[in-house]
Amino acid sequence: MSTTHAPVPGLPRERDVLPPVIGSAVQRIDAVEKVTGRASYAADTRIPRMLHAAVVRSPHAHARVLAVDTSRAARVPGVHAVITGADTAQVKWGAFRPDLYPLAVERVRYVGDEVAAVAAIDLETARYAAELIRVEYEVLPAVLDLDAALADGAPLVHDDAPGNLAHEFAFDRGGAREWLERSDVVVEGVWQSTRQWHGSIETIGCTAEWSQDRVTMWVNTQTPFLARQRYATALGLPLRAVRVVQTEIGGGFGGKSGDDNTSVICAILARKTGRPVQLVNTREEEFLASRPRIPMRYHVRLGFTSDGLVTAKEIDLVADNGAYTGKAQAVLGAATVRHDALFTYRAVKARSRLVYTNLVPTGAFRGFGNPSADWAVGQAWDLAATRLGIEVPDLFLLNAVESGSVSPHNHRISSCELKQCIRRAAAAIGWYDKRAAPTPHRGLAMGVSVHVSGRRSFGDYDGSSAIVRLTEDGRAAVIIGEGEIGTGARTTLAQIAAAELGLAVADISVSRPDTDLTTHALGALASRVTYVAGNAVKQAAERACEQLLAAAARQTGRPAAELWVEDGHVHAPAMPGEDTPLRQPVGTVVRAELYRPGGEPIVGLGSFDNPSEFPDQLRYGNESGAYNFVAEAAEVEVDPATGAVTVLELAAAVDCGTVLNPPLAEGQVEGAIAQGLGMALTERFDWDGGAPTRPNFVDYKMPTAGVMPKLHVEFADSYEPTGPFGAKGVGEIALDPVPSIVASAVADAVGVRVHELPITAEKIFWGIRTGSTTPPEQAGPGGLSESAEPAPPDRPAPPRDRAPGEER
Amino acid sequence: MAVPLRFRLNHEDVEVHVQDPASTLLDLLRNDLGLTGTKSGCAIGYCGACTVIVDGRAVPSCLQLVGLLEGREVRTIEDLSGPDGLDPVQTAFVTCAGMQCGFCTPGHVMALRALLDQEPEPDEERLRQTVDGNYCRCTGYVKILDSAREAVSLQKSLTGEAR
């Protein structure tokens, strides 16, 4: 059953003989639980004697905590514990740069910073008591934006971070300045991305219970093992004292990857009360104190030869870390280098700085820096196409990477169908036809992006392991710690196991992570589960199958090489002199292997480590073993009277290798596009004093069904040699180009280029009238408003006789 | 002082004693009656995750005060499936991959159930309007709308068989 990926002459390649369950629309293994409301999410955990908790948060962006009076709260009937920083281990924690206390010690650094917490008999009592806690603050000067934080003599968010720099690095690979000087065309601009909240409909939550010296935490975390490590640090406990169990997760997108204090506070309250405690964020808390996308400001310079070959790129990037770092440091790395794996740059130069502010801490969000990079660099490419007089898809095709390309940072591209994606997205949107017959106030744009399939980030390991246990009733249990955040990962892992084992998907179960019971796993991040965990499950299933066949061979006296598994049975041809072929149920073979003197179970262990390199301090290194690609094209219409944008159509062509389950893969793309449209157009708050004025869904508008454009989703014919059955990751990629292509399409439609997200009607309205996207009364120095671009007619129409998408 | 309250819940008469008539049906269902299939997403009636059916209409249970429930008829997601299987709306979501994380799914299912009870053959515009009332952060709504269309045709074929 072992599978070789090397093509054998004369035999069909594996990609030509994929098992039928691979690539079929298998029903999700958790579908019925979810449609019936039986799936148990974080807030659905019920334990006898369970208490409920509420948190007291800072109303100030920066203040010294002079005193906390909990006496009135503690006297409220039904209150079991009130805690402050003094009740914690007072240890700073964080994924890369430990800078966060579980509850404030001496200072608060953003509006929402946790100061105290209450556990009580019910939620109403806990919230009432929390309101009775009196905190005396000495308000300190705060830095509320990037420029204020970087100014000379700015107040420090953390005393040990001079200049408010949480992290910085710089490199020049190939002499970018020299290449830019020698370039025929150089485009340049400054682009600012935005804080975007994950907006999972389920908020972050935890239920914790102590038994002797150990705490069990039922958490809706995407990364139970990584979260456990951090929680142990935050609680001042040895790793063995913490057990994390994943509940059902109502949306992740990076926001539930264990960088916030909610679970830690819950565990401290549970220890103090000696009872189970549940703490679930309100929607307001989710907006105030989760870890939204990092706003990034890019200064981009891009050089080209006159015939459209890219020469070099230089970026200067400042990113708003907020008050605590979490995973922002790693996001900064991806935001700086990842997009250089798209085009054949001769040289790239970058300076990247992560800057502390007294604002909500930022962190991981689907795309992991890529949407901000694409927002800036993607628009620079669009500007370049206009300057060069080359259609965007053609400019991309001239410069796109291919299989075998190596980026300046040593990203080694194995499978790559980027050019196919560009052609297919152009064809799907009708690019050349629409260019030939432009409609007033409508605009077209295209963008491309690249993403990883797992990223070596948390130490020199990006692997996964899995156990496949064949059961005595003829099924298979896949035991793995990766988990499920809604993407359908457990279903695709079941398909992979089913394909290897010759069992039906209905006969495969896939565990949920439990740090006591399952294999170690990094979890659902970096688009890694299908590729990394899929390979581990595939090997575990192969090995279990080998054991099954060996057992059946011993039991039946036939050579193992003659046996195979199909439809839940072990098969063999009829022996010489016998009429009937062998057909033995898998369960019978497993039972017979157990129920004998010295009997043994049939258990396969599989392991896979991403064939990648741990990047160095300057982000040099092949961060993933496989890269996925997308090309997206959008057509928008702008109402010139109001500036309102309607996205009419959006086409996405994705290279994620073999598509294991088409509806699930489509769902990843469709959902990512929706999230990208929200980031592009509507997701914002009004701010005052360092916090959103109304942190709720009424102000923060996410896309609804009514505003979705017509979507065309296609998958490239592609096969990744190192992937399970040729598959790569698909979870994040389709979000990345969306904001940039909406902006470029608006520029194409009405000649107004928006440089700061989101792309609001107001900015376009002023852009059309005044040439500046800033309202006249707010215009001032240092803004990002840009003069209007040359009107669209300057863009040459392609010759009509050219076939759509034809490469030149 | 607890106030007695009688209403119909999932076709059964229930009597509960509520401390606060201004508390919500959502909290009553989840905390006092153990019906956790109804989800809380925003607590301000905006996201639709907590949608239940009251007297035949889809309402956000986070805004439905318990004091106004006396004598009324409430249906929750727990009522839609049973030993006989799934409601056609639920079946449609299963077959069309209409959910990812699934947290908003009970709300979407209840909103569409209420629509189909009132209008067995809604047109595309009505389906879109109904789905538009509930947030989903995972799917981009494409497969939820597929599920909605499938639910209409499934219900139609089942009704046809019943005749």
Automatic annotation (TrEMBL), chain A:
InterPro entries: Ald_Oxase/Xan_DH_a/b (IPR000674), Ald_Oxase/Xan_DH_a/b_sf (IPR036856), Ald_Oxase/xanthine_DH-like (IPR016208), AldOxase/xan_DH_MoCoBD1 (IPR008274), AldOxase/xan_DH_MoCoBD2 (IPR046867), AldOxase/xan_DH_Mopterin-bd_sf (IPR037165). Residues 797-808 have a biased composition (Basic and acidic residues). Residues 36-141 form the Aldehyde oxidase/xanthine dehydrogenase a/b hammerhead domain. Pfam families: Ald_Xan_dh_C, MoCoBD_1, MoCoBD_2. One of its GO terms (molecular function) is oxidoreductase activity. Residues 769-808 are annotated as: Disordered. It comes from the Bacteria. This is CO or xanthine dehydrogenase, Mo-binding subunit. It comes from Actinacidiphila yanglinensis.
From TrEMBL, chain B:
It holds the Pfam family Fer2. Residues 3-80 form the 2Fe-2S ferredoxin-type domain. PROSITE patterns: 2FE2S_FER_1 (PS00197), 2FE2S_FER_2 (PS51085). Keywords: 2Fe-2S, Iron, Iron-sulfur, Metal-binding, Oxidoreductase. One of its GO terms (molecular function) is 2 iron, 2 sulfur cluster binding. Coiled coil: none annotated. It comes from the Bacteria. This is Carbon-monoxide dehydrogenase small subunit. It comes from Actinacidiphila yanglinensis.
